[in-house]
Amino acid sequence: MLRKIRSGGPHQLFWRALLPFAAGLLGSLALPPWHIWPALPVAFSLLAWTLDKVAYSEPAVARRCRPAALVGWCFGFGWFVYSLSWVTEAFRVDAAIFAWMIPFVVTFLPAGLALFWAAATATAIRWWRSDASGILVLVATLSITEWLRGHLFTGFPWNLPGYVAGTSDALAQTASIVGIYGLTTLVLLWSMLPAMLWRRGGTPSYRLAGFSIASFALCWGLGGWRLAAAGPGSHDDITVSIVQASIPQSIKWQQERRADILSRYLELTAKAAANDVPGHHIFIWPETALPYLVAELPALRHRVAAELPPDSFLVLGAIRREPTAPASDTSVRVFNSILVINRNGDVTATYDKRRLVPFGEFLPFEGILGPLGLRKLVPVPLSFSAGTTTAPISIAGLPSFAPLVCYEAIFPLSIPARGLRAKWIVNVTNDAWFGSSAGPVQHLEQARFRAIEEGLPLVRAANTGISAIIDARGNVLKRLDTGAVGILTAPLPRPVSNTLYGRFGDLFYALLVASLLGAAVANVRKLGLNRS
Fold first, then answer.
1. Structurally, how many domains does the chain consist of?
2. Active-site residue among 252, 353, 376, 423?
3. 198 shares its domain with 279
């Protein structure tokens, strides 16, 4: 393929590689934290026009797939290489050990994710036409491969195009019906509007353009109506306090800093407790808040519990071992967990993280990659084990919550025990790995969409930010930005009625994609009959 491009000269190199890469790079600026949403229709229409050119220059369908795949790969690489560049921040925390991996991470991660986009364009080009059918098939294949990206090889659904809709609170409400994958499908359709109105060697698709505009207006109108409706309010007798201690990742696991870290959390908790209000009070500390095995240290738990006021509980992230034994024991399993501690210092509930971060919490193919010098980022002797807990956590008769540890919040339908609907979501995380980069902003935005999808308020405790209290419609009620030290205290928001997405999951997304493909087939048949 590269030889063919070189033989075709600068013209083919520009159209099949450089222009798609630049378009993908431009399109990614519509994502958080940049929110330059007009870049999206320019980028995806350029993608469609480039595929038009591939189809025009390669009349034989069998010869189109490879150049179309290159176009899609270059576009995807541009989309991910900048929007995910913040990942390299984690490799600078312990630069002496991990900095050598940065060039590989900054190229291999976006290159691998771009393969999904290459598959989408290579598939779409086989049924490409310079009319509405081509656009419909391209939107459908991109949508399907984005769904696959979120599920295959443990899944990594970061920076889906649908998250651009978060720029508008009204449009974001559509996720309560079709989820983020369905919203991705719609955003892709809306972004192709310029390509619908002008096609190389084809006819404008006015009907499809009209449908695109009408669906945009409908989603925006319904979302505005949902936001304008009276909200469910908050619990007057339940208060939540998030403690954001902002412990730098570089010192988090230093033995000599352990006492200082504990003292900071206790001081902030005592400050929040001093403003205690009647009723129940739930304090929330972030992922792996303390550099201790909290579940194994009753004296430590009692010291922490001493800072809690009456009728209160502490929810915190912590590393947990099972069974408790020396780390050299190969039968020991290590979990990234959420613990609930009462005023007596007892652990009353536990949740173990089910979705682990590859290369962060475990090393894939450890027997092969370990001898090559690759290591996981989290400095514990063993790789983490995945949990199996599926039930929401209940606290002494209080509204049950769905626990999500860090990375789990990026996955739609990640709420445990969907048949036993929780009343709120607790997301503990440690984004200190990524400093003040775009990563924490994107992570917060994706967590916000879980609240919209499920119709559940979300309380997010992040070590260095961004901590937030978010209502069931995705409105950020309070937040502590990156690097801030402090507490967030507010009444616990109430949930809304179960959403269509909460009941049926990706069903409406699947129907939407099937409808696009059905419309494409119907359009082809109609044109064929007219020509005959």
1. 2
2. 353
3. no
